[in-house]
Amino acid sequence: MSDVTRILQSMESGDANAAGELLPLVYGELRKLAASKMAHETPNQTLQPTALVHEAWLRLTGNEKVKWNGRAHFFGAAAEAMRRILIDNARRKSAKRHGGGQQRVDVEEIDIAAPAKDEELIAINDALEELAKADPQKAELVKLRYFIGLTNEESAEILGISAPTARRWWNYARAWLYQKIQGNNAGEVKK
């Protein structure tokens, strides 16, 4: 059992000091991932990696009723929190400057970390929500890879799958998202 899992279980048991022990263990990793993601953002980005981590931490620990099912659940929730923060920020900025319009996204160029343009981020998020309905496991992998910047191997460990399976899921999800985004930009949805 990892230290993170042990501390999460202590938090569930009502240990008031557990959150204080958890933050130093996960903060460095979350900060590194946020910094990696933010390095790909536009230079005039108002959201900084530290702010992204802090906002995600508040969302993760703000609800005392959350029951963590281990390290994978915690980092999956962190990926989701960061994704939602980035999407909310992109939608807010996009609505003010561009009227919420969407543009084409070349998903073939995507490896990890979200693109710089807010419209692209929103288009990917919308397609990801559809993927989550069709295949939640592959959508979770995309969140870990794309929004947090984890490798296939790191994502596989968190999801409890093998690295080759993570690679297959990642290839499938990229193709699925590419087709969905291209179909939406062409005015039709390809199945």
- Major sheet details: none
Q: Secondary-structure element order, as H and E?
A: HHHHHHHH
Report mean pLDDT, rounded to a whole number. 77
Global shape: globular
For the termini, the CA-CA separation is 42 Å
Radius of gyration: 17 Å
Number of strands: 0
- Count of alpha and pi helical runs: 8
Uncertain runs are 98-102, 112-116, 187-191
What kind of oligomer do you see?
single chain
Structural class by sheet pairing and helices: mainly alpha
Quick recap:
It is built from eight helices and no strands.
3D structure, described in words:
The protein has 191 residues and is an all-alpha fold. Helices cover 70% and strands 0% of the residues. The chain has eight helices and no strands. The longest helix is centred in the middle third of the chain and has 28 residues, at 71-98. It is globular and about 50 Å long. The protein starts with a helix and ends in a 6-residue tail after the last helix.
Main attributes?
mainly alpha, 8 helices
SSE layout:
Elements: H1 3-12, H2 18-38, H3 49-61, H4 71-98, H5 118-134, H6 136-148, H7 152-159, H8 163-185
Helix pairs in contact: 1-2, 2-3, 3-4, 4-5, 4-6, 5-6, 5-8, 6-7, 6-8, 7-8
